[in-house]
Write a sequence for this structure.
């Protein structure tokens, strides 16, 4: 009996020793955390960068064959322009905001990396720059096929340098929304609704494509406006979905601890399930209402689900994440029909996907996050959306009144590829 007790005691001692050793081994030094966090920002930025390709492919697929080359030029152009202006002034406008303030400083970004910050400033700038590029991309698809390319580039520069950084900084930069208790984990409002509001301003100022709606406002047949390539739209959606794991996952902003890695893993699951639920819901809704399973609505349903969960992808259970994704897709579907009824021509469905679903996702954050309230969330949504819409509307109106915004009727008939870039995407077919 005594020997048995000794053996049990020895086993307990060994067990605790092993546990203590394992615990010690999982404790990372400050330098180690710096390395892992920096690597996390880098990898997250690379994943979000894939979303630029996703937006480009989705837009190229949804426009007509006469505008594909222009879309490609717009996407590579705004990707470069947005990055440069964010470096020159955008970053410090966002992250130079005093606590509880409204605007940062007009300074060129500079490195201030040290062990104490927990990560390289270079990696942080890179990650945040990819978010800027994603926000501007939302506008591109909505105003496609009738906007001049250089006015769009100018708007992209203003959006990336001022509009997005200022409103984003109100929360992520420690501004007044952050101190008020507003919560938007990865940007349902700060990125997606902000971009959607800017897109709404653009399509209102531009007007619809020629012949898109009848004299009485009815939606005309899409045959003259048929999507150039459904496979490209599908590829674009998958690339965006893939990039979303970096967009949401690495918004945890740290990978150096057990809790951080666990959180990122849960975020990935919730993000994926929300997108999946949005896809299936859109398929069911279109089948029940229209009698056919609409592939474009399915793809936008996936994106709407992903947008909706972005405001809070960590706290919800997987079941709740799927519910949020499903409702986001339903909002997208009826939002699309509503815009069409008002003769608002959003070529890719950017406004219902990003703005409408983004607003919904932000407003339901209190369901899973008790640290915020519906009133605070509503304040944040209204502030960001109104700010983005009003400033974007002013910029678009100013561009229209000075250098011109919309291509001519003749150019629109020929197609933007001929009129704007001089290169046909599908020269053999045409």
């Amino acid at each position: 009996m005594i020997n048995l007790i000794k053996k049990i005691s020895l086993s307990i001692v060994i067990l605790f020793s092993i546990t203590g050793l394992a615990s010690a081994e999982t404790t990372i030094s400050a330098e180690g955390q710096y390395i892992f966090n920096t690597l996390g920002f880098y990898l997250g930025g690379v994943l979000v960068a894939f979303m630029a390709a996703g937006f480009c492919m989705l837009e190229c697929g949804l426009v007509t064959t006469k505008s594909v080359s222009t879309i490609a030029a717009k996407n590579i152009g705004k990707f470069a322009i947005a990055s440069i202006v964010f470096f020159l002034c955008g970053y410090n406008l966002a992250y130079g905001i005093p606590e509880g303030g409204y605007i940062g400083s007009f300074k060129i970004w500079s490195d201030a990396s040290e062990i104490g910050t927990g990560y390289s400033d270079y990696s942080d700038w890179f990650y945040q720059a990819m978010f800027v590029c994603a926000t501007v991309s939302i506008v591109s698809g909505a105003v496609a096929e009738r906007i001049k390319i250089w006015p769009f580039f100018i708007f992209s520069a203003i959006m990336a340098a001022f509009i997005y950084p200022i409103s984003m900084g109100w929360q992520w930069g420690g501004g007044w929304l952050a101190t008020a208790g507003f919560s938007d984990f990865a940007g349902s409002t700060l990125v997606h609704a902000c971009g959607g509001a800017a897109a709404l301003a653009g399509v209102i100022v531009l007007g619809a494509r020629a012949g898109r709606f009848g004299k009485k406002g009815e939606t005309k047949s899409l045959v003259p406006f048929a999507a150039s390539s459904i496979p490209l739209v599908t590829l674009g959606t998958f690339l965006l979905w893939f990039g979303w794991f970096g967009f949401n996952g690495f918004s945890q902003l740290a990978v150096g601890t057990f809790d951080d890695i666990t959180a990122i893993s849960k975020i990935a699951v919730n993000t994926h399930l929300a997108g999946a639920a949005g896809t299936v819901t859109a398929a069911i809704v279109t089948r029940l209402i229209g009698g056919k399973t609409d592939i474009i609505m399915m793809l936008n349903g996936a994106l709407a689900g992903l947008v909706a969960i972005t405001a809070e992808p960590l706290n919800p259970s997987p079941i709740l994440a799927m519910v949020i994704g499903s409702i986001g897709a339903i909002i997208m579907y009826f939002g699309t029909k509503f815009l069409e009824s008002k003769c608002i021509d959003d070529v890719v469905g950017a406004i219902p996907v990003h703005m409408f679903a983004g607003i919904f996702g932000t407003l339901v954050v209190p369901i899973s996050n008790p640290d915020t309230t519906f009133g605070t969330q509503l304040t944040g949504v209204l502030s960001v959306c109104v700010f983005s819409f009003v400033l974007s509307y002013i910029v678009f109106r100013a561009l229209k009144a000075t250098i011109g915004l919309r291509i001519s009727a003749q150019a629109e008939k020929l197609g933007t590829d001929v009129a704007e870039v001089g290169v046909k995407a599908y020269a053999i077919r045409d």
Summary: The CA atoms of residues 275 and 281 lie 10 Å apart. The chain has one domain: 30-421.
